[in-house]
């Protein structure tokens, strides 16, 4: 059974080949993908490694989390699977509308200009 690993804090100079070589020390690497910005093509600083064996995956996570790779300490953990639950919700932002009036507020009166001759 394969296992997917999240790799964060990647240097922009890291390549998929160098990442594959690093993780291959712990077992068979099935795929490597560094996520890139679609407009610039530049790395977003994170990627995913899929390993063939769950035990190798666990060992790679243990050994490579906080490992200095291309002058950056990697953040390595199991990737969340699709449907594994939502991300934690952010608290709602407080918004204050200047000049807004709430429904049923009678304190707001429209100004009317009477034309008198």
Write the layout of secondary structure elements.
Elements: E1 3-8, H1 16-23, E2 29-36, E3 43-51, H2 54-64, E4 68-69, E5 72-73, E6 75-78
Antiparallel strand pairs: 1-3, 1-6, 2-3, 4-5
Structure description:
This protein is of the alpha+beta class and 117 residues long. It has a domain at 3-78: 2-Layer Sandwich (Alpha-Beta Plaits). 16% of the residues lie in helices and 26% in strands. It is built from 2 helices and 6 strands; from the N terminus they run E-H-E-E-H-E-E-E. The chain has helices at 16-23, 54-64; strands at residues 3-8, 29-36, 43-51, 68-69, 72-73, 75-78. The strands form 2 sheets. The chain has a 4-stranded antiparallel beta sheet with strand order 2-3-1-6, with helices on one face.
What does the radius of gyration come to? 26 Å
The CATH superfamily name of the domain at 3-78 is RRM (RNA recognition motif) domain
| CATH architect. name of the domain at 3-78 | 2-Layer Sandwich
Helix and strand succession? Answer: EHEEHEEE
Strand order in the largest sheet: 2-3-1-6
**Helices and strands: which structural class?**
alpha+beta
**Name of the CATH class of the domain at 3-78:** Alpha Beta
If helices are DSSP runs of H or I spanning 4 or more residues, what is the number of helices?
A: 2
Count of extended strands: 6
Shape: globular
The CATH topology name of the domain at 3-78 reads Alpha-Beta Plaits
DSSP strand (E) fraction?
A: 25-35%
Largest sheet: 4 strands, antiparallel
Task: State the separation between the terminal residues, measured CA to CA.
Answer: 89 Å
Stretches where pLDDT falls below 50 for ≥5 residues?
none
Arithmetic mean of pLDDT: 83
* Helical residue percent band: 10-25%
